[in-house]
Hints:
Layout: H1 5-17, E1 23-31, E2 52-59, H2 66-72, H3 92-101, E3 105-111, H4 116-119, E4 124-132, H5 144-152, E5 159-167, E6 173-178, H6 179-186, H7 192-205
Helix pairs in contact: 1-5, 5-7
Amino acid sequence: MHFSLTDLAADITQNSAESGADLVELAIWEQQVPAAGGGPVLMGGSSPVEGEFRFTVRDNGRGMDDAELKRAMDPFVTDGIKHPGRKVGLGIPFLIQTATQSGGGWKISSVKRGMETAAGKPCGTEVEAWFDLANVDTPPVGDIPGLFRTVLLFEGPKEIILRRKRQGGGADLEYAVKKTELADALGDLEDVSSLVLLGKYLRSLEGEDE
């Protein structure tokens, strides 16, 4: 089971990393206070509400057609490959359940590779979910720097882009990082010394003290 919103984000991002994608992007927005009239609009075109957490995962992987997408949202369907022996898939279905129960929502779109011309969009999948942080059924946010470090170590994509924005609560921040740029600066990200430096860097971006 998932115990935090960052666990959910990691699970969905791992799906994208395993989709044959060259590029995976994870964006996290957090709104801690109500936006005044005419204030910023969060990803997806919805006005931010008090205590909202939202993440979007995009990839340019193999994508899904309508039938495959429907199966991916069914908790009682599994391909038996990614998680052999598991009879119930908890990725997208559990995300949908958690977002709905927490007073939030979700949105998924996908274009199967080879169908780009007909769809008028590039192949790949986009998953977006948002959560009301004031809702008693919303899991805790979790460790965002830890999430980002985990995602950067996923195998498969040549490029992973992380975007982060937080507004309100007196600690606004906004930044973006790319896996290729971090690898150029730190070397092999799986090296022990690089992992330590990566963790310190990501926590510094969040304004966290060592």
